Amino acid sequence: MRTTKRNLLTASGSLLAFCALAGTVLAAEPAAQQVEPSDDSTVVVVTASRITTRGFKAPTPTTSVTMTDIANMAQPNVFTTITQLPSLQGSSGVATNTFSTSSGQQGLSSFALRGLGVSRTLTLLDGQRVVPSNIGTGAPDVSLFPQLLLKRVDVVNGGASASWGSDAVGGVVNFVTDKKFEGFKANVEVGETTYGDDKQSLVQMAFGKSFLGGRLHTAFAVEYHHEDGIKAGDFGEKAANGRDWYRSSTLVNTGIANNGSPQFVNVDHAQSITYSKYGLITSGPLQGIAFDQNGNPYNFVYGSNGVPQKNAAGNVAGCYVGFCVGGDTSGNIGIGATLQSAITRSNFYNRTSFDLNEDNEVYFTINLAKVDTHNQPNPGFTEPGLTIQCSNPYVPDAISDQCAANAITSFKMGTVTPFLPSIRVNTERKQERFVVGANGKFELFGRNWNYDAYYEHGKQNSDIYVHNLLLKSRFTAAINATTLNGAIVCADPVARANGCQPINVIGNQTPSASAIAYLQPAVGAYQHTIQTQDVAAVSVSGEPFSLWAGPVSVATGAEYRREWYQAKADPYGNGTTTPYNADYPPDPLLSTGGGNFYAGNYRNGTGSFNVIEAFLEFNVPLLNSDTTGQLNMNVAGRAEKYSTAGNAEAWKVGFTWDTPLSGLRFRTVRSQDVRAPNLNDLFGPTTSTNLPNFTNPFTNSTLTVSQNAGSNPGLKPEIAQNFTFGAVLSNPDWLPGFSASIDYYDIKLEDAIASGPNATQLVQYCFDGSVPAACSAFDLTGANPYVNVGSINAASIKTSGVDYEVSYQAPRPLGLQGNLVLRALATNVSNFTTVPGLPGTIASETAGQNSGATPDWKALFVQTYSTPTYSLTLQERWFSDGVIGNQYVVCSSGCPASTSNNPTLNNNTMKGATYVDFAGSYNINKNVVAYFKIDNLFNVDPEASPQTNTGLDVNPALYDTLGRFYHAGLRFNF
To answer: Where is the signal peptide (predicted)?
Structure first.
């Protein structure tokens, strides 16, 4: 197994005593970015804290991406720019989730910090929450934010729940807009890959103007963005439009666990022995007979010189368990997934404010946005175990004769049904967001105070339509054909009476339109989801008094938040106890309990929760002299009361020390952070199954219980302990323009929400006390006893590592007329350990596992040279070599016994990657700038990420699957 590397910095325990917060105050979630007084440019607003005051430096590490950085990256979606930061790991984007049928996350742009998942990263817009865009993640879609009005994006790398509330376990990403933008600007961009696909077009415009002597200000932004996406590949190993890197890499099982050789072997061109493109007989005396596209039989070409054993088990000598290597791979389906979803975005944003006086304003914002995406998760439908009757009229005579000769009446066959239209997933998200608020300052007891109050209402409509899905029972009936009165019909008379149309699964004969309509109804799988979010918040900050080292700053406030959702699904997937409507005619073959589709099978659901929160934060100067430097203590606490999950508390204690040495500062934070269960965790769509004769171990009796799979309303908040310690060197006297920072982080998450066991196991865990959290998931004493087998609070996660950042600004380098900016950011993840917390399970280590989201090292290097006329930017994105899985024991001979927890494998390596991007701009005049960008300049192919099947064996969360990409555009600024 892989040996976990030690950190470059280690925590030797707590370096500072942590202060206990006395009492609890009502807290708020107002905007992070307080309105900055126009006459006081020294006020610093820091997303990592709620303190708004002069000279404040938050102890939590924060990386800012400026408007200039965003422009230099020339990405049509700012999400792509931000996810290149090393601390963002495992985010969801347009190149991920494309192989998914039912998640609804296609084209979803949501951030994940520290590899902890998008649900543990809080994303804000001007310090305010945004209604989630997906019920499963509970996270917003940042592609729906107004991009052209952004001033910067702050990424807080550390727990921030005490300041901002639930979900900020990994950190916070805050989008900061230009609230007083004046003028007109626009951006027009086009792009496409070196393969001529994923053609892109982007049009953005923003306008801002003041009226009534500057008291009334309004700013508008509109945006339209379209990407064609990358079409799915075909069956076999042919990727889209000439990409040649796919090779069906697979970890095949030798079936031998204790003979000194590895149990698993890493191979390319794996070939399943359970199906072929046009049909393969997989067991019995006819095993090894395949069919061509015309339905003619021939002897299948097995890889590895495999020889079918013609037994009931379907064994093939010379091959591995389920796979051969080489041979006829034309039926492989992995590359048939869309590499990048097609996407169309449109966005409208307006902020209008009115100054009541010099110090106070009222405002409202409106954000109307829409995203449409579509993808193909796989080609055809893999059907590896079909039973075909020898009397089926579609069976060729030569095969019927062999059936008779071998005294069999049926045979097993596998096909990928290339004759059926492939699945197409269409996902549409619409966002309506309204905010009304007031902010400014007032004087009380001779002191100036800042305040911010707002009310936000957000609504998200999500529609998922999955076209061309098979109804499983109808397919089974349709392939069982017979001859009646000279016509080929479905053999089942009940199926015939309800519209069954026979189909031929041998070869590639396109079924009739009526047959396809019977199998893949026009009104297929869908789920319509409405989510709403209402937030009312108020906060106040100021400097109420001073101590020996300077003024004490305080921020406090209160927030009320309510979230609600409702999902409605099609009757085929959800099930119904009432007659189907005209689009869903009654059919005895279909289950009224739902689950009828090949995939998808969405369910209805609804639920809501509300929370009242409170926070109080202090910044206390402890030292302030030339001899000792400046030492500040930052303390915050937050209390949360959820209508569902109960009470939760978050707190932090941090210190910053600006040393007497020029530019050198130390910082540390210890915090407790919270993620409360979201709507999907608590009330996600569920399926219910009655379990008769269920044993109640508490009473040693049996009863009938309802097993509810999908969610758990008894979940409690996750609790994380966060620690960071680091040093910052900023613009020292001896090297002007140079800055550097190094920060060690350590996160321990307890009571993590993860998939639970089955009903019997769950009740037993509670009974024997091995998993106390299991006790909240069932009730066997009520009138309607139930067991919720969704998620439970049982898992734990521990991760640690080091962040690095270095930058240098050199005006007139080597005497040239320009400015050189160098910047490097890197994150080293030393460990990422997940403990399931259930009996019989073991911890897993995923740091350095390049099949996942947390490589050992991830880095970003940027070099920009700019003059008043032009600029050039060179960027390198790099992550280190890694492994497929840390659980494997690597060996080629003399291997130990292979186990399920630690299987043996001959090759566990996955190469890292370096992607070089090149960009430039030219000022045509003072109002117009032309620019270009080339991503992945050297067209580096993705590394294979082999699994134990022949799916899409690449990892788009880390690797570039698109190839070289060209962008060009014009920016206008008047």
So the answer is: 1-27
